[in-house]
């Protein structure tokens, strides 16, 4: 997603774009995609509407679309242009103000409004009176399904309250393949199941509020550098083999489609050399056929680069509407799509399917009734402002109503931040800190690091949070929201301890003599974000800082540890860091990863530090001892090589399934802290495990069912008059309209009617709907049988401590049978559950579920999910982390054993 710029930047962008446009270079891949990776043609786009859960919405949508003119249809599938909000006042009576990061056109004659599409995945972006929730990575670190869902509900309420139709989240791609990748923190962790659960429950929570969720970015957007196509250089190509795509990167998208997600956003980059916004195999084949996606696909902002080609390849909505060089009033769609339908190049049924998908999603969320118009502007915080900021001359009017949508959502935000705090070390039980006499008089605390206190210029001082000053609560870029406030750690600590000395510096200062019982808390950070901004030399990805703490944080820890013998390190970070230079120092007694807590950074941490609650977060990624513990393809950011500086960067997923813990386990490399690791103030046991076979498995799932009916669309080209711009209509310069002049419409129609001038269709193109579809499809998310419960595992979790209450997480990992014909990672996460708060001695039975898909591999030959070795011994391991799995349940004997040697 693109970001909001100040007006001056906006004009600079315009000036630059005029200059750049002079060189209209066609992007060509200049470095070859490695042999074996192909972007196969897949045509046509399967019509939506055949899934039973959408059929009512499709029936209504088809009825509405059936009344639309050509220009109304192409209005809805494209944005009005970046920074283009309110439509011209003279066109209609419904005077909507649509000031979001993306605004579609409308068909007001039929009551279909402009849709407001708004960032971000962690809160309503660029406006006030909202909650700045913890980031995705923090949410994933809770390993708590009910909290993930509760955050989704609260997010949905806030988007709805501001009048945003479409929530541009959740992010499940990047998956976190590259620890240095800039946007991994927007998602839930470096594992497909953690991402799938995080994404699906967020979608459910958001969409139950009547807001369309957007699962993004499809697919392989694992680094920020060179992600975008521009007139001089194509975006990088993520070259991903079929099995890896299915078993890792597509997995969370399948779960999102299964959850009924209304929208998908395509990624900036290419896959196998073909840009995601026009990759027919990806959009038509995998997403709409195999995964049975019924909603609409939008382009990431300014990633759209063709007109006819993307329509045929399965793109349904062009965002924000402009060509790659924005603000010129030109579009690949809108009026051009109108032309392409009239001249016969884009089949009418493809356009009808596009627009019906959009309108069906609107009905599916119930937005046809009682959904108010937006009451905020993403462009300004002032009450009054320009109605079309991108126009040369724009009228002004009220643009912000300051509707407060926060309700009590700080409680769920704080709970997520608190339950995500992950304790990695606690030697000699330094934590929780004992405040001694009442009021904290007995504890003498020294706090170090600028991260403990909010940025003195305010938490929103840097636009798009593109700086790392003060408490780090979120990364930077479009995936942010404005803080209504930032409860910082130092404030929360001072509320509990009287004798606090705060050294607001990242360099070790002179300190007075230190007593043996004195405690030091050191705050360090690591930040990253979107490529549109460079922060302290990092181009979105952590290409400059690498995996070291920012601002010399590692040296600060070492210096403090040289003076104090009781040091607690608190880390606010987007992802893993290398901790080796200090983790084993005897005086570094405790380490807490607080991730990116959002607005509730203070109390959530203090509750853990001072023992109101036990820490219960677990790492959503592995922390390695060295960056080179991961393969080179994963550990580095891809850059152009040699003389081919302008060529397409090839990022080939040579490691296949082996990322994060999957790779470390394969190589037998011990992580410093394994995926899933997290300590508590108390201890838990896992006992009385049992396993139940629920569905009798066969090697492949039962054959998919037939598709339901889809709306019947005409294929005859509509009259040119449906595209005529109304006479006397006064346009706003650079606003994107779907009409053509009469002469343009007539001449395009003449081309289409003659049928002689053929569009150079891609190889493999056809417009005949396929009745069968891919073998692995059949429902939303794929063959419904894939989601049958195969096994249920129960385990009794008991708090065996005597002093502290706490919550435990049970993680279930599958180990495939030995000797099967497929190479599989030693263990792979498949489900997890968290207990309620268990008092000392308290116990709770948790149930973990494995579906047929969870015990399958993707077979590239049969193009289906295959259970390798039906009847053989799969081991379902259960434990508190990926490296402490001592309870194993066997699928052949249906017995479970405790006290086993962990598989890794
Ligand atoms: C990429 O290429 C591989 C190898 O040919 C193929 O299996 C896979 O399906 C391709 N992916 C896409 C999205 O085209
Ligand atoms: C919708 O699907 C349900 C369940 O398959 C079916 O009974 C119903 O007839 C369908 N309705 C339409 C309008 O297709
Ligand atoms: C397209 O949408 C814009 C913005 O709402 C509106 O002004 C215009 O009238 C619409 N065009 C058509 C053909 O309805
Ligand atoms: C936003 O506020 C405006 C003005 O008070 C109101 O008309 C509109 O219905 C509100 N929108 C929503 C979604 O509540
Ligand atoms: C139809 O119009 C589209 C959009 O301008 C253009 O790309 C395409 O080449 C045209 N087709 C023909 C056959 O002229
Ligand atoms: C803090 O502790 C130091 C050393 O024990 C002591 O000298 C000082 O008076 C204390 N300050 C407060 C405010 O209690
Ligand atoms: C938890 O168990 C470990 C290993 O048995 C033990 O060293 C530790 O003291 C226990 N911690 C608590 C809080 O009971
Ligand atoms: C509760 C809250 O944050 N209210 C704010 C809503 O927005 C207006 C305008 O920015 C502020 O003045 C309020 O403080």
TrEMBL record:
UniProt pathway: Glycan metabolism; cellulose degradation
Enzyme class per UniProt: hydrolase
Residue ranges annotated for the Fibronectin type III-like domain, each copy included: 808-882
EC numbers for this chain: 3.2.1.21
Coiled coil: none
UniProt keyword list: Carbohydrate metabolism, Cellulose degradation, Glycoprotein, Glycosidase, Hydrolase, Polysaccharide degradation, Signal
Name of the molecule in the record: beta-glucosidase
Protein origin, superkingdom: Eukaryota
GO biological process, one term: cellulose catabolic process
PANTHER family named among the record's database cross-references: BETA-GLUCOSIDASE (PTHR42715), BETA-GLUCOSIDASE F-RELATED (PTHR42715:SF2)
Signal peptide start and end residues: 1-22
GO molecular function: beta-glucosidase activity
Reaction catalysed by this enzyme: Hydrolysis of terminal, non-reducing beta-D-glucosyl residues with release of beta-D-glucose
SMART domains, alphabetized: Fn3_like (SM01217)
Protein family (similarity comment): Belongs to the glycosyl hydrolase 3 family.
Entries under InterPro entries matching the protein: Cellulose_deg_GH3 (IPR050288), Fn3-like (IPR026891), GH (IPR017853), Glyco_hydro_3_AS (IPR019800), Glyco_hydro_3_C (IPR002772), Glyco_hydro_3_C_sf (IPR036881), Glyco_hydro_3_N (IPR001764), Glyco_hydro_3_N_sf (IPR036962)
